[in-house]
């Protein structure tokens, strides 16, 4: 006798099929979301060679919009669910890259994952198709990114001394100045002063005021670093033929310079400088008589 006419058997078969369909649907959902996550992380890891996270977010949003227009067709709503999740995920990654990573940090250009997990930085450097110079700079950034101030400074000085390529050395100076670490910024400043010993250095006034005597005088003024001691931070300076001194510390750079003014020769000028943008030191130059001017000193 056949069982096909027994109501209980049909109900049991239906109950068995329903969980199977739900399990299959859940598996597909997890698979697509997992692929979206992997794609988002890959775009984040590739941040040093392109802003892939932004383009992935735009692409996922465009696909979601297209599927919304096609929502009346079969499976379009399911696909829209997947693409909507991918859009949200890419948006979170891009927003984290842009706003949550430390501003001004060298790690900001490395992507969100490396910014919050610096241990992954060597892996990123290894797998990306980068030039040798770029890999050297990224390895330098990794080396100075952690440890005590003394350890970071020692590593920076050692790697800089063992590098012969001037372009890579400039990148190392830029990495130290952009690190936000006062000890590394002090080291970079002293290295540049030492390399520019005997060169004529310029204190350029930031604002050109024709009525300000100090600003006008600075346009034709230069000074020299006769000696820069990287270990102590001390400077021997020469301004308008007279020797003086200065100091580069973790709090900033202070220069004591002599300057001949039109109405009063050999005045002592105190210059307080701090790391600024574009590899420049910026601050204020002051005379004993109270005159002052905003100035900048290019490191290159």
SSE topology sketch:
Blueprint: H1 7-45, H2 52-69, H3 76-100, H4 112-116, H5 121-127, H6 132-143, H7 149-161, H8 166-177, H9 182-195, E1 201-202, E2 204-205, H10 213-218, E3 222-228, E4 234-239, E5 242-249, E6 252-261, E7 264-275, E8 280-287, E9 292-298
Antiparallel strand pairs: 1-3, 2-9, 3-4, 4-5, 5-6, 6-7, 7-8, 8-9
Helix pairs in contact: 1-3, 2-3, 5-6, 6-8, 8-9
Tell me briefly what this model is.
50% of the residues lie in helices and 21% in strands. The chain has 300 residues and is α+β, with helices and mostly antiparallel strands. A hairpin with a 2-residue loop joins strand 5 (242-249) and strand 6.
């Amino acid at each position: 006798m056949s069982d096909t006419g027994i109501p209980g058997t049909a109900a049991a078969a239906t109950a068995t099929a329903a969980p199977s369909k739900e399990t299959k649907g859940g598996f597909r959902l997890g698979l697509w979301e997992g692929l979206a996550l992997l794609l988002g992380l890959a775009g984040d890891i590739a941040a040093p060679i392109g802003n892939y996270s932004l383009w992935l977010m735009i692409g996922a949003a465009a696909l979601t919009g297209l599927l919304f227009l096609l929502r009346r067709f079969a499976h379009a709503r399911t696909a829209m669910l997947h693409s909507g999740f991918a859009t949200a995920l890419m948006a979170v990654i891009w927003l984290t890259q842009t706003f949550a990573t430390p501003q001004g940090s060298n790690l900001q250009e490395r992507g969100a994952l490396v910014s919050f997990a610096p241990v992954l930085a060597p892996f990123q450097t290894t797998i990306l198709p980068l030039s040798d110079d770029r890999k050297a700079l990224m390895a330098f950034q990794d080396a100075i990114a952690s440890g005590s101030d003394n350890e970071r400074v020692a590593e920076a000085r050692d790697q800089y001394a063992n590098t012969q390529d001037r372009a890579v050395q400039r990148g190392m100076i830029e990495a130290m100045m952009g690190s936000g670490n006062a000890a590394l910024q002090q080291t970079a400043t002293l290295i540049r002063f030492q390399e520019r010993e005997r060169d004529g250095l310029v204190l350029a006034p930031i604002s050109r005021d024709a009525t300000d005597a100090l600003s006008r005088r600075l346009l034709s003024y230069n000074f020299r670093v006769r000696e820069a001691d990287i270990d102590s931070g001390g400077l021997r300076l020469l301004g308008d033929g007279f020797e003086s001194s200065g100091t580069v510390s973790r709090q900033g750079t202070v220069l004591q310079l002599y300057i001949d003014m039109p109405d009063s020769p050999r005045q002592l000028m105190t210059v307080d400088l701090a790391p600024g943008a574009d590899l420049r030191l910026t601050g204020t130059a002051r005379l004993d008589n109270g005159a002052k001017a905003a100035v900048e000193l290019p490191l290159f």
